[in-house]
Design goal:
With 493 residues, the protein is of the alpha/beta class. The chain is built from 22 helices and 10 strands. The radius of gyration is 27 Å and the shape is globular. The chain binds zinc ion. Zinc ion (ZN) binds next to helix 4.
Length: 493
């Protein structure tokens, strides 16, 4: 994959935008009837298409080939092409957040407004993160908005509406962008998978949609990482290599145990999560989020569109069987314990204490807690290889990318697993790899994979190198596709 998904398949037509139909419909009507305003304000969370729609609007306004009354751009004429390539002269994009010299922005606006667009009908200013403009920039903008030249259109985009001065607000047509639902994100990912000629389990797509929390661009970014594994038929276990090992479904089960005061099952699940290397802080956050949604449902009777239908059904059952006070108690206790998760040697302990508190005194449950603590302590003791440092770890580090590249020839997912690890010790013969997740350790311990790694190391260093692995959950790792450097643009940008 040479390009990031959201750039490769950025929507080129209004009809391709998912989740913002309330906006694209109105805009298309305005274009159709020629009843345009000169300043728009796009507001909403990051990564859901504000810049994409601003560019589409600019493209449609200047398209020379489309028929009268047709809102969609032709995507063939010179203007459309230049917008698609990102080099249209009459679209002036300003990222207010990245300009520290704010007067720069002011000058850019004042200077550019003075000259009529050359070679096209409109000059369109797209000001991203507009709430970051300085007062002087806002004043310059206001002057222009008060008497806008016929051929100028402003699109202000912001994630923080409350920071936009009222004087500016009153002169703009405002569009509130909504977070797309899980269903809409899944639809979009299905389409991308089809274009990439990849099959992907729907459960994987739903998981991506949940993790991205309504951010379409984030969803596409995550899905792109899964695609980069190079697997043609993506199953849940493949996605495990990329997606954080935490599952909303498990959090929902956990919540069910708490509501039913089933301390035993909740304890067992906690241990299970710990053993599988699930990030318990993430898990706890999901648990809090679900309990919050349950409270919302209990009070308003309304569901959250971000969840799947099955999950909402389950929450409805919880809501019927659980008093409001009980939900508040669950939330209170979990929130109070949450902060301790990363401070203790046993990350599962705060969750276990929360279970004990919520589910009440129960002998069996208490014994489980003590046992689990001992187990976890034992585990901690056994971790940690001793390695004399006569070899040079730098010797390994410097050629690590080359090693990963060579391994790719043998196995596509193995380099990914290795990216999630770090060489931390080398004595000339023994190479110690720290691994973030236990699941990845299992992959590396697999004899087939171990052989590949050993052979590649031998081909690079001309000698036998033995691999030893150890799990280190606190390992800091950047999972980033090297070609995914642009985080500026909106979804589909
Ligand atoms: Zn065109």
């Amino acid at each position: 994959m040479s390009q990031v998904l959201y750039r490769k398949y950025r929507p080129k037509l209004f009809s391709e935008i998912i989740g913002q139909e309330h906006i694209t419909r109105t805009l298309q009507n305005e274009i159709k009837t020629g009843r345009l305003v000169h300043s728009y304000l796009f507001t909403g969370p990051r990564g859901i298409g504000k810049t994409t729609i601003a560019r589409l609007l600019a493209k449609s306004l200047n398209c020379t080939e489309k028929k009268e009354g047709e809102p969609e751009p032709c995507n063939k004429c010179g203007h459309c092409e230049s917008v698609n390539l990102g080099n249209a002269l009459n679209i002036i994009e300003i990222d207010a957040a990245s300009h520290t010299g704010v007067d720069n922005v002011r000058d850019k606006i004042i200077e550019n407004v003075r000259f009529a667009p050359s070679g096209s009908k409109y000059k369109v200013f797209i000001i991203d993160e507009a709430h970051m403009l300085s007062i002087s920039a806002f004043n310059a903008l206001l002057k222009t908005l008060e008497e806008p030249p016929e051929d100028i259109v402003f699109v202000l985009a912001t994630t923080e509406l409350h920071k936009i001065p009222a004087t500016i607000l009153s002169r703009c047509q405002r569009f509130d962008f909504k977070k797309p639902t899980v269903k809409q994100i899944v639809e979009r990912l299905e389409k991308l998978a089809k274009l990439e000629e990849i099959k992907a389990d729907k459960k994987v797509l739903e998981r991506v949609a949940h993790l991205s929390e309504g951010g379409m661009r984030d969803a596409e970014g995550l899905f792109g990482q899964i695609l980069s594994l190079g697997i043609k038929d993506i199953k849940e276990e493949d996605a495990d290599l990329v997606l954080p090992k935490s599952d909303l479904g498990l959090a929902l089960n956990f919540l069910e145990f708490l509501i039913n005061k089933n301390g035993r099952e909740a304890m067992i699940l906690t241990q299970d999560l710990q053993e599988k290397g699930v990030n318990l802080k993430c898990f706890t956050d999901q648990l809090i989020e679900l309990a919050r949604k349950l409270l919302y449902l209990k009070i308003t009777g309304e569901h959250d569109e971000v969840l799947t239908e099955d999950m909402n059904k389950k929450l409805s059952t919880f809501s019927e069987n659980c008093a409001q006070d009980e939900i508040i108690k669950i939330l209170d206790i979990i929130i109070a314990r949450r902060g301790d998760i990363n401070n203790l040697d046993i990350p599962s302990l705060p969750l276990e204490l929360a279970v004990a508190e919520i589910c009440g005194e129960n002998r069996e449950t208490k014994r489980e807690t003590a046992e689990s603590r001992n187990n976890a302590k034992e585990e901690n003791k056994t971790i940690g290889y001793q390695v004399s440092n006569s070899g040079d770890i730098k010797e390994i580090e410097s050629r690590w990318p080359e090693i990963l590249e060579k391994i790719k020839d043998h196995n596509h997912s193995l380099p990914f697993v290795l990216k999630m690890s770090k060489p931390i010790g080398f004595d000339g013969t023994n190479l110690i790899l720290a691994i973030k997740f236990k699941l990845h350790q299992e992959k590396l311990e697999d004899p087939k994979n171990r052989d590949i790694l050993t052979n590649v190391l031998k081909s690079v260093y001309n000698r036998d190198i033995l691999i030893k692995t150890q799990v280190d959950e606190s390992l800091q790792i950047e999972i980033r596709d090297t070609d995914e450097v642009d985080v500026e643009g909106e979804f589909g940008e």
